[in-house]
Amino acid sequence: MGTAVLTPPKASPPGESIPPSRNGNNGRGGGGSGPGGSGGHGYRGPSNPPLPLGAYRIAIWIGIISIAILFLALTTAMMVRAAETRDWVHTTIPPILYFNTLVLMTSSFTFELSRRALGREADKRFVLWLYVTTALGLTFIADQLMAWRQLAAQGIYITTNPSSGFLYLLTAAHGLHLLGGIIALLYLVFRTRRIILNPRKRIAVEVTAIYWHFMDGLWIYLLALLVLKL
Questions:
Q1: CA 191, CA 197: separation in Å to the nearest integer?
Q2: Is the confidence at residue 212, as pLDDT, over 90?
Q3: In this structure, which topology does domain 54-229 adopt according to CATH?
């Protein structure tokens, strides 16, 4: 039986460095070729977590407050102008604006039906009432244009007198903001399948409903203002 002889390791000469390991990890361990021993997978960087749903609600309420401040400023300007001028002549609003009020109130009701149907997983009713709401919104805009044509046919333009100017200004400002709501509705219409399949996408329905109901209430306020103070 032979005796094993242990040979001490050979020392490296001064100034000679030990060559790096060929396993590709440069002494970092883990056997992976990527940084930190990721097992051959490249570095993907930090992931971007989705925004919390509450952030969307905060954003829409900030927008609503900004719009409310705008119309409050327009109301104040109209009040001051009516009190200081001598050429203020009462302008009768076109009767179609009363019908438009009914249209917008109905659209707010149908939107609520659509939102609740989505919550009950009644997908077909959700889509149906969403289509109806969009159609009613477009009807409101069309009737608004018709109201301006009726005013023009009576010889009442934006520069005819201060009251007619504010009539055009207030209804146009509301119409433009409502048009933004219609664009949001059209987005929902084209994304109905994704909204139904992905619960996180349903926040779009909620924030659009908040905005739409606000525009409904704003119009009722404007109509009362135009009838009583115009």
A1: 10
A2: yes
A3: Four Helix Bundle (Hemerythrin (Met), subunit A) (1.20.120)
